[in-house]
């Protein structure tokens, strides 16, 4: 069985491309902290490449940005290619089946808007209530 579940933050804005057949593919990298600290007492971080296909990839490109927190369910895939200098390169990436947006696109703006809305509320007169 090849299945992984990850929660992390995007290290940069997602990149959307299309294949020669017109299929959308979105790529981004997430930073995932390890569960335990190293010998120096610091938690190490892994940077994992994520690939998302079709409409889910388009939505990731549309709604995610650098710093967004996401949950990813997918499988680990290894592939290789020959570089221009003649060496063989290996890539490990996560092919996402599900991506859960754990922070909003405008997370920085939400508290300000909410505070302004609360300030506009008027007190109600509860003397006339039957309970």
Q: Which tags fit this structure?
A:
131 residues; alpha+beta; 49% strand; 6 strands; 5-stranded mixed β-barrel; elongated; 2 helices
Give structural notes:
- With 131 residues, the chain is α+β, with helices and mostly antiparallel strands.
- 15% of the residues lie in helices and 49% in strands.
- A hairpin with a 5-residue loop joins β5 and β6.
Q: Work out the helicity level.
A: 10-25%
* Percent range for β-strand residues: over 45%
Low-confidence stretches are: none
Span between N and C termini? 60 Å
Count the strands?
6
Give average pLDDT, whole number: 89
Total number of helical segments?
Answer: 2
Query: Which structural category do the helix and sheet elements fall into?
Result: alpha+beta
Overall outline: elongated
Give, in spatial order, the strands making up the sheet with the most strands: 1-3-4-6-5
H-E order: EEEEHEEH
Rg from C-alpha positions? 22 Å
Major pleated sheet: 5 strands, mixed, barrel
Note the topology.
Elements: E1 4-10, E2 15-18, E3 24-37, E4 43-53, H1 54-63, E5 69-82, E6 88-101, H2 110-119
Parallel strand pairs: 4-6
Antiparallel strand pairs: 1-3, 1-5, 2-3, 3-4, 5-6
């Amino acid at each position: 069985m090849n299945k992984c579940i990850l929660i992390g933050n995007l290290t940069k804005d997602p990149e959307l491309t299309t294949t020669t057949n017109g299929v959308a593919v979105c790529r981004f990298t997430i930073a995932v902290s390890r569960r335990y600290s190293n010998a120096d007492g610091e938690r190490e971080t892994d940077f994992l490449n994520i690939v998302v296909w079709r409409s889910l990839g388009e939505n990731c490109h549309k709604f995610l940005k650098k710093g967004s927190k996401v949950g990813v369910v997918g499988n680990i895939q290894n592939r290789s290619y020959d570089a221009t200098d003649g060496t063989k390169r290996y890539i490990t990436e996560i092919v996402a089946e599900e991506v859960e947006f754990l922070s909003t696109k405008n997370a920085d703006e939400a508290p300000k808007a909410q505070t302004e809305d609360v300030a506009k509320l008027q007190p109600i007169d509860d003397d006339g209530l039957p309970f």
